[in-house]
Structure formats: structure tokens, C-alpha cells
Amino acid sequence: MLLACGCWGLMAPLGKHAMTNGISGLEMVTFRVVGGAVCFWLASLFVRQEKVRPKDMLLLFFAGMLAIVFNQCCYTIGLSLTSPVNASIMTTTMPIITLVLAAIFLREPVTGKKVVGIALGCVGAFILITSSMRGSGTAVEGNLLGDLLCITAQCCFAVYLTIFKHVVQRYTVITCMKWMITYAAIVIMPFSYADVASMPWADITPRVWAEAAFVVVGGTFLAYIFMMKGQKTLRPTVVSMYNYVQPIVATAVSVALGLGTFGLGQGLAVLLVFTGVWLVTQSKSRRQLRQEERQRTSPAARPSAAQNSNNGTTDA
Questions:
Q1: Among candidates 234, 280, 214, which has minimal Cα distance to 32?
Q2: CA angle, 78 then 161 then 189, to 5°
Q3: Could you say which of 6, 20, 36, 116 is the most buried, measured as most Cβ atoms within 10 Å of its Cβ?
């Protein structure tokens, strides 16, 4: 999850630059899903082939709609309309949404560690985002429609993490993503083909093409492999908590490129984020709480009547 969110954190500034220099939001989404589908089908040639049950094929279709079509379309188009700062702020809502959905649908306990961890991570992310906004020295303009699209993307992904965890556990990452992203490409292409066909291909610079290539390979192919590996073993709330790593990556890139500075405030923000992630990972799941309850109420945990009688005789 750390690697996945690192790729997504890099994708925000690189993708934003590409979408302001010749590639529209809808065109970028098309490149992501079509390029990602090609990558996953090529990768499937080198792994064991799995037969997917018809019922699971249908579930993977709906998973692809939530995790890829609605998530990517809403976020990428929203990012093209609003500022990167506003888009980053919207991503901080996903752990909160996931916590609520996991409590409703999976009956995961809302423990104190989870609440405190999410709060610390949210505060740390806000410190990083607002400090980068002040450090830019320029006015950062948002857009209400863009902001709403970005937060809708977080809701869609939170629902995917909560509902489809058991489906993706049955198959390998390559198998799941091959079908999910293929379904997404089939759905998106009819709406975006005309825009892609009319693109000024010759006017787009090599730098913009390189940024688009990173969005496809790094922000889609590799990031989804890392994310689904984490989703197989981690609870939905823990997976969503790593979303707070993305502002850290953006800050690190800015510092490395000389576009920002790293001071005490940023250091405190990083500490808050990772403390929050650690608290959520340490919180107990529903299964752990049930195991503890069974251990407390099992006959082996209670002294027998004979033991009590012997203890009483010994005491006497």
C-alpha cells in the first residue's frame, strides 16, 4: 500500500501537468484504462491462467465500475477542473468514508485507535497540503464541480474496498485486474473515442507523453498491483489509511525538485500521518475481538467446580 500510494502521489502533479499541456481529463482516463488493460493482458501471459466463475465475472464487472470507471473518471476529470491542492484535500475523506462503510457492511468495530489514527492522519495531511499551498506563493483556485467529482471518486473507491474484498481474495491480482480494467475500457471507449481521435497528437511534447506513460504504467499498472496485494491481507480501513501517504510523496517530490522546503511543520505532519497509520493497523478487527471473547467465555478459561472445591479445602 505504501508503494501504491507513492505511485498515486507522483501521478497527481505529473498528471496535472500533462492535462494542462495538451491532454484532456477524459483522454487521460482513456489512456489509463486502455493502456492498463494492455499491460495486464501482457502480464497475464507470464502467470498461471485461472478460470473465473460466471458469478465472479459479474462481480468483477461491478468492481471495475467502482474502482476504475467511476473512481478514475471522477478523480481525473475533477483534477483537470480544480487545483491539485483541492484534489489532495478531497482524498483525505476516503479513510473516514471507509471506516463508516466497514462498520455498516462488514460490522468492523469502530475502535478508539481507529478514530484517533484517522484523525491524526487527517490533521497531518491537512498540514502538508496547506503548507504546500502557502509555499507556492500563488493563489490556488479551486472549482466546486471539480471538488465534488474528486470526493465522489473517494466514495466509489471506499465502497469498492468494503464490498469486493472477498472477491479479489479468490484470484490472483493479475486475473482480477485483467478483467476489471478490460470491462472499464469497454465502457469508457464509446464515450471518449471521438475526443481521442481528434487530439492534436503532433503538438504534444515528449515530456507530456512521458508523464502520460507514467500515469499508465506507474499510476495504473504497478499501483493497482501493489494496492490489490495489500487489499488481500489488510482490512479496508487500513488500506484506505495509506491514502494519507500521497501528500507526503507530493511534498518529497517538490523538495527534491527545489520547488518546496521541508521544515518543522512538514516533519510534524509526516509524524502525525505515520502515527495515524500505525494506530489503525494496530486496532483490533472483528475476528480478533470475537476470538478474545470466545477465549474469555470458553470452559477452559473458567476454573472447574472440582478445582474450586480443592482450592477451598487447601485454603482451609
A1: 214
A2: 45
A3: 36
Report the SS3 class of residue 24: coil
Extract the runs of DSSP E, i.e. beta strands, from the chain.
none
* Helix axes 25-44 and 71-81, enclosed angle (nearest 10): 140
Give the ranges where 45-137 is alpha helix by DSSP (H). Answer: 54-64, 71-81, 84-91, 94-105, 112-136
**77-119 per-position pLDDT tens digit:** 887 777 666 676 677 777 777 777 777 776 777 777 778 877 8
Instruction: Give 221's pLDDT tier (boundaries 50, 70, 90).
Output: very high
17 close to 210: Cβ distance less than 8 angstroms: no
- Of 243, 231, 246, 250, which is closest to residue 277 (Cα–Cα)? 243
Is 125 within 8 Å of 247 (Cβ atoms)? yes
Using a 10 angstrom Cβ sphere, with 0-12 exposed, 13-18 middle and 19 or more buried, the burial of residue 93 is middle
Asked whether the beta carbons of 215 and 80 are under 8 A apart, the reply is no
pLDDT number for residue 209: 94
What is the spatial distance between Cα 179 and Cα 268, in angstroms, rounded to a whole number?
Answer: 42
Cβ of 262: how many Cβ atoms within 10 Å? 14
Retrieve residue 260's grid coordinates.
Answer: 518546496
Q: What whole-number distance in Å separates Cα of residue 190 and Cα of residue 188?
A: 6
36 vs 185: CA distance, rounded Å = 9
- Cα separation of 206 and 226, whole Å? 28
Residues 6+ apart with CB under 8 A from 80: 16, 19, 20, 24, 25, 28, 146
Q: For residues 87 and 94, give the distance between their C-alpha atoms in angstroms, rounded to a whole number.
A: 12
Average pLDDT value over all residues in the chain: 78
